[in-house]
């Protein structure tokens, strides 16, 4: 049986790994969306092969989770058309545990194959392995962001400041990544709510302020130079100030 559902869907943000889920079983699709988003991935979901093929071809994704049995066009057809244009890593999902199905998928260009039902922990491990495998040295370098003595390694999901590792939750990591990608730019609470939490902002909600306060405690306390600043009445900015 599948494990319990986890968290909510995020919107697209810069600097976070993006995953496309093409799965016609709504319950499973939501399970994947929630679990992956709780691990700070940006997740888009579609429930049929035609829309999935369009999104995979036209969007910029780091990984595609692709069901075999889909309405419109099946997973093998989506994979074939995707491989004609892109080399995006693909993890195929199927309820059919037949050797010939796995062989067909792998020969068609799938990078891995997972049979339902599966534990989320196994799927997450396979996702992380595929993302690591698909990262070249140059790609890994592009996922390393620095600001002063702060370093964010997107590929390894590791944050350090002055050589000290910072222990961040997935949401804190997503929030910091967004601020790092747009460092020097003041981001409103509305933008943070939509980009990190997929919330339509409610002025009575203090989730953003609480999250920023917790991130600031880990990021700045004990260090000489603060990096996360509040611009009163506007929002928050990550920058080095003289």
UniProtKB/TrEMBL annotation:
Residues with 4-aspartylphosphate modification: 67
Keywords attached to this entry: DNA-binding, Phosphoprotein, Transcription, Transcription regulation, Two-component regulatory system
InterPro entries: CheY-like_superfamily, CusR-like, OmpR/PhoB-type_DNA-bd, Sig_transdc_resp-reg_C-effctor, Sig_transdc_resp-reg_receiver, WalR-like, WH-like_DNA-bd_sf
Superkingdom to which the source organism belongs: Bacteria
DNA-binding region: 142-240
PANTHER family assigned to the protein according to its UniProt record, in alphabetical order: REGULATOR OF RPOS, TWO-COMPONENT RESPONSE REGULATOR
Domain Response regulatory residues, every copy: 18-131
Limits of the OmpR/PhoB-type domain: 142-240
Protein name: Two-component system copper resistance phosphate regulon response regulator CusR
Pfam families found in the cross-reference section: Response_reg (PF00072), Trans_reg_C (PF00486)
Organism per entry: Roseateles asaccharophilus
Lineage: Bacteria, Pseudomonadati, Pseudomonadota, Betaproteobacteria, Burkholderiales
């Amino acid at each position: 049986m599948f494990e319990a559902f986890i968290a909510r869907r995020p919107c697209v943000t810069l600097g976070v790994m993006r995953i496309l889920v093409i799965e016609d079983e709504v319950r499973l699709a939501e399970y994947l969306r929630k679990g992956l988003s709780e691990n700070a991935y940006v997740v888009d979901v579609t429930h049929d092969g035609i829309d999935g093929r369009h999104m995979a071809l036209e969007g910029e994704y780091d990984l595609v989770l692709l069901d075999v049995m889909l309405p419109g066009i099946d997973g093998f057809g989506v994979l074939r058309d995707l491989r004609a244009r892109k080399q995006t890593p693909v993890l195929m999902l199927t309820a059919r545990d037949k050797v010939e199905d796995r062989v067909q998928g792998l020969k068609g260009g799938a990078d891995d194959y997972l049979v339902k039902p599966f534990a989320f922990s196994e799927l997450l491990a396979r996702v992380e392995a595929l993302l690591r495998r698909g990262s070249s040295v140059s790609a890994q370098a592009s996922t390393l962001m620095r600001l002063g003595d702060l370093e964010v390694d997107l590929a390894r999901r590791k944050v350090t400041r002055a050589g000290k590792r910072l222990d961040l939750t997935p949401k804190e990591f997503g929030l910091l990544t967004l601020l790092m990608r747009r460092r020097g730019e003041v981001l409103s609470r509305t933008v943070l709510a939509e980009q990190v939490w997929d919330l339509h902002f409610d002025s009575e909600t203090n989730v953003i302020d609480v999250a920023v306060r917790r991130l600031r405690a880990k990021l700045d306390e004990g260090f000489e130079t603060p990096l996360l600043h509040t611009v009163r009445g506007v929002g928050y900015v990550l920058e080095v100030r003289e």
